[in-house]
Structure prediction request, 171 residues.
Amino acid sequence: MRKKKVKIVVDSDVLIHFAKGGVLSFLPNIFPDYQYIILSIVYDEVQTLHTQLDNQIKFLKNIMLEDFAPTDGMLLEFAKLKNSFGEGESACMAYCKFNQDVVGSSNLKDIKEYCNVNHITYVTTLDFLYYAFKRNIFTAQECNKIIQDIRTHGSKLPDITIEKYICTVEL
Prediction:
């Protein structure tokens, strides 16, 4: 029997998206039964968000910074992934492969195939927003504004409304 997935390992793009949407502080509320992990290597990638993240880590119980110190198989997997992908994505995928946790990333070009082949669950920014809408954290109008704000601030995200988005992830 597989162990229950209890951690969401968040990559920099999701953190950046939620910051650009002005709703970073809401991210840990979307899946409150999960521990949100920001690996140190990802934290280093988002230096402009350190103050916001530090405040969340200090005051919220379900978000934490974790030192990325892979050993043995995880270290080899990370090194292999790093040849093709960014350090943050590589760290998140290697960590989740060896811990059976969930990757939080919208960089589908990099993570989708690897996660599917290795049976790693992943959630994207739109998946997070979908669940925020379904759980009444945000209204449809708020979700659609967040999506547009993220796009307006230069991040890649599909031009879609939350009502038309089809989420395939069950958490």
Notes: The mean pLDDT is 93.
